[in-house]
Q: What sequence folds into this?
């Protein structure tokens, strides 16, 4: 009988993630805040962004919410301008502009978005972690069960509030206020969205925390492509700081002091930069995927340098080339190409926005036979006119047929029971129409025409189409 042996558990030779221990267990981080000059600026910006996020749904521009993403009606309002799902070119140019702007910002300023503006960082570092430190007490002190329950109860309340604010961007504050006062069974879909969002926010900030940045968010993994050696990073000056060592206390002798000053760099190996890092890394190991450029290590190190009467900036905003003694260069290939692409995309976006028509008109041939010859000898074409009201108010529409040069048609009649049609702002409809004409109006069985749709405000849009009929005897010439 063969004996079965179990191999002993082997630790990983190096950490896989900064939030994992070598044996694979979760390493819970409790970063110590370093309230330096950059932290104070980030705090002011963070609370400003939180206030903006909460207040923006209550701001109205032109009678509409400043931002309303109405997925049910497929309408997207941004500061008075309403976009529809059919605005594919506008939306494409907007996304292209956004991505190019991110590329340019990263090439110039590194991961400044992650450390200064990302909601994950803003809420984690300036809402949830301060609350946690206040309730749990000093680091290293085991929190009581009562405090833990209170902490998670407050986390849940904040998650509920954030979920409601998030939902207001999709339904508006007026609808949200009505739903809050009514039973969830009267609006189950929205209630489930709010419930799901609450669960995600709570799980994110109570459990996943910094792992959302390290594992779920792909931006850190893209930095090797988006950054170059001249991009701005938070970096440790190894040439100045190494070799590390504790400061020598007076009384050790002149020879010992001279030897220490010669052999040691400015880094005193206090690990303050590690203790304050919200993702648990050691910035002294170089540029790392986990670094979100939050500048906490800069504030912590500057405080130590100031206390020791040494020059601050051992950890600072710099670039990989500068750390190797190379001169700073702003102009490079990507800082020329990205701005050029951004200007082109934004220019195209503005032109599309300025040339947006007050209505969308699309003329399609109806299903079935392309034409019908009536007993009177006239030729009938069945058309569908798709109409979208892009204005901010209610409009009434009429339609006429014209020649390709815009002149009225003789002997050709547009017959439809759907006109005049009244549409509210953003509404779309399909009108059914018949075109009656004599065979003499056709040449080779074809007659190009335009359908001119006009609203009661004087706006008009034309759409080209072709009327079909029989060829051969009886066909006339185009007037």
A:
């Amino acid at each position: 009988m063969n004996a079965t042996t179990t191999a002993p558990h082997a630790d990983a030779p190096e950490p896989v993630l900064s939030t994992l221990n070598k044996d694979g267990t979760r390493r819970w981080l409790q970063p110590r805040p370093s309230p330096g000059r950059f932290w104070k600026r980030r705090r002011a910006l963070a609370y400003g962004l939180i206030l903006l996020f909460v207040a923006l749904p209550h701001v109205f521009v032109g009678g509409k919410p400043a931002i309303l993403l109405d997925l049910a009606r497929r309408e997207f309002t941004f500061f008075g301008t309403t976009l529809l799902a059919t605005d594919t070119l506008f939306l494409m140019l907007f996304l292209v502009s956004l991505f190019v702007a991110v590329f340019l910002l990263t090439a110039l300023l590194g991961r400044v978005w992650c450390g200064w503006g990302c909601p994950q960082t803003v809420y984690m570092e300036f809402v949830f972690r301060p609350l946690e430190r206040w309730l749990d007490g000093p680091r290293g002190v085991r929190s009581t069960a009562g405090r833990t329950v209170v902490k998670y109860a407050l986390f849940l309340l904040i998650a509920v509030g954030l979920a409601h604010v998030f939902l207001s961007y999709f339904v508006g504050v007026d609808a949200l206020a009505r739903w809050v006062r009514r039973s969830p069974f009267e609006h189950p879909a929205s209630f489930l969205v709010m419930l799901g969002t609450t669960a995600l926010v709570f799980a994110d900030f109570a459990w996943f925390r910094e792992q959302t940045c390290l594992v779920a968010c792909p931006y850190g993994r893209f930095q090797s492509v988006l950054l170059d050696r001249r991009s701005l990073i938070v970096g440790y000056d190894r040439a100045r700081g190494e070799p590390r060592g504790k400061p020598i206390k007076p009384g050790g002798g002149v020879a010992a002091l001279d030897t220490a000053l010669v052999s040691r760099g400015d880094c005193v190996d206090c690990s303050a930069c590690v203790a304050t890092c919200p993702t648990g890394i050691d910035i002294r190991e170089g540029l790392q995927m986990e670094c979100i450029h939050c500048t906490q290590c800069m504030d912590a190190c500057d405080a130590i340098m100031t206390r020791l009467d040494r020059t601050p900036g051992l950890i600072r905003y710099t670039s990989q080339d500068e750390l190797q003694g190379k001169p700073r260069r702003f102009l490079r290939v990507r800082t020329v190409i990205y701005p050029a692409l951004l200007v082109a995309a934004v220019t195209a976006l503005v032109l599309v926005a300025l040339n947006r028509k007050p209505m969308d008109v699309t003329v399609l041939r109806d299903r079935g036979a392309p034409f019908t010859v009536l007993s009177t000898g006239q030729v009938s074409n069945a058309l569908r006119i798709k109409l979208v009201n892009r204005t901010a108010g209610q409009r009434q529409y009429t339609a006429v047929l014209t020649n390709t040069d815009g002149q009225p048609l003789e002997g050709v009649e547009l017959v439809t029971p759907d006109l005049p049609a009244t549409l509210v702002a953003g509404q779309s409809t399909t009108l059914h129409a018949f075109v009656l004409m004599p065979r003499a109006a056709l040449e080779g069985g074809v007659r190009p025409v335009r359908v001119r749709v006009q609203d009661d405000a004087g706006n008009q849009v034309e759409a080209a189409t072709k009327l079909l009929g029989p060829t051969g005897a009886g066909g006339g010439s185009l007037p």
Remarks:
- Residues 359-468 form a domain with the Immunoglobulin-like fold (CATH 2.60.40.10).
- The chain has a mean pLDDT of 86.
- Residues 258 and 397 are 91 Å apart (CA to CA).
- The longest helix spans residues 145-171.
